[in-house]
Design a protein that fits this description.
Length: about 375
């Protein structure tokens, strides 16, 4: 169950939640379970991309999963960013836990594509995130703007307005994947304004039961929409003009997608168990699984493994799904985290000024007597 107050929510040390777990507190099993299940859906959906073109059913399921798996992950990221401010120690964790991994993995993915895919023209550009590294750019920008969202009176309507404007502004360009940053922004801001009781509301038994027909209807709509709707709408990476649609459909689709994604995200949260499960501890390593599984998915594609005909049949699609789920699960485990902690959560005290927070108060205390003396 959730703690009674928002301040009692545990904040583990990870890029999703900037605070370390204080002594005597335990991580909330619900959030770790939700993050693990969401990251499994992310990996499985990525494994479907080379296969979905041969199956209308698979592509329909793919669109349903894509409509809520990243929104769910982003809402949780926003919820655990509520305490973020410009305090030096939190800024340090933002740099070491988000900015540094972005530089490392964006470089790593670019080099991987250049050599594994025999693409010598693949450039290393920190301004143009490739594949899944866009999330780190977005998280960095969202978290830096957290104090602003906590200051304004109507943060969620403002964030929705920005997303709607971004959808009709192709001049934003591809730098830092700002279209995704801005169009996914409302989900992060929603997480910022949510309280533990909101999560309790969607975990009621009545909501869990209602989620069954809602998801069933979503799957039917997803199957129906396959030949009628461009899947680029779910990626939020282009302005509407770049998709060849009338300009007014951009704001309309932003609102429609936000509403449908929010409904399915609520259903997803309703089904997430609140007690400790065998996979609960893996929730602490979801960013490891997220950033590392892309090498496996892309590597399999570069090697032509998805070209085997039997993988494009239902049994093969189930096999690929199970393999992706198993792989990302292993990548979230403690041994993998120990190996990659040096780049995911590096100790970079050498790069920062020592005792920076204590220097300013000391200077103020020394300056006070001089001010009183009129110096």
């Amino acid at each position: 169950m959730f703690p009674a107050a928002a301040d009692a929510v545990p904040r583990p040390r990870s890029p999703e939640s900037p605070q370390p777990v204080p002594p005597g507190r335990q991580r909330d099993a619900f959030f770790d379970n939700a993050k693990y299940l969401a990251i499994v859906l992310v990996a499985v959906a990525h494994s479907w991309e080379p296969l979905k073109g041969d199956s209308r059913i698979l592509e329909g399921v793919y669109t349903v999963v894509y409509s809520f798996h990243m929104p769910a992950f982003i809402v949780i990221s926003g919820f655990f960013s509520r305490s973020f401010d410009m305090r030096p120690d939190r800024l340090k964790r933002l740099v070491t836990g988000v900015a540094v991994p972005y530089i490392v993995f964006e470089t790593g993915y670019s080099l991987f594509k250049r050599y594994a895919d025999h693409d010598p023209g693949m450039e290393i550009s920190l301004l143009d995130p490739w594949f899944l590294t866009w999330f780190l750019v977005a998280l960095f920008i969202w978290r830096l703007t957290t104090p602003i969202w906590k200051l304004v009176r109507w943060p969620l309507p403002l964030a929705l307005g920005i997303a709607m404007l971004a959808s009709v502004t192709p001049d934003i360009g591809d730098d830092l994947d700002l279209q995704r940053v801005l169009q996914f922004l409302p989900y992060f801001v929603l997480g910022l304004v949510m309280k533990p009781e909101h999560f309790r509301m969607v975990r009621r038994r009545s909501v869990r039961i209602a989620a069954v027909p809602v998801f069933a209807a979503a799957l039917v709509v997803g199957w129906w929409a396959v030949p009628r709707m461009d899947t680029d709408w779910f990626y939020h990476r282009n302005a509407v003009q770049e998709m060849g649609a009338p300009w007014w459909t951009g704001p309309v689709m932003v609102l429609a997608m936000f509403g449908s994604s929010l409904l399915l995200t609520a259903c997803f949260f309703a089904w997430v168990p609140g007690r400790r499960m065998w996979f609960t501890a893996l929730g602490a390593g979801t960013l490891y699984g997220y950033l590392l599984h892309g090498f496996l998915i892309k590597g399999a594609g570069f090697a032509g493994w998805f070209d085997h005909a039997w993988l494009h049949w239902p049994a093969g699609e189930l096999f690929v799904s199970a393999l992706a789920a198993l792989a990302v699960t292993l990548l979230c485990t403690a041994p993998v985290r120990r190996v990659f902690r040096c780049v995911m959560e590096p100790d970079m005290n050498w790069a920062f000024k020592k005792d920076a927070p204590a220097v300013a108060p000391a200077r103020e205390q020394k300056a006070a007597p001089r001010e009183k003396a009129g110096v």
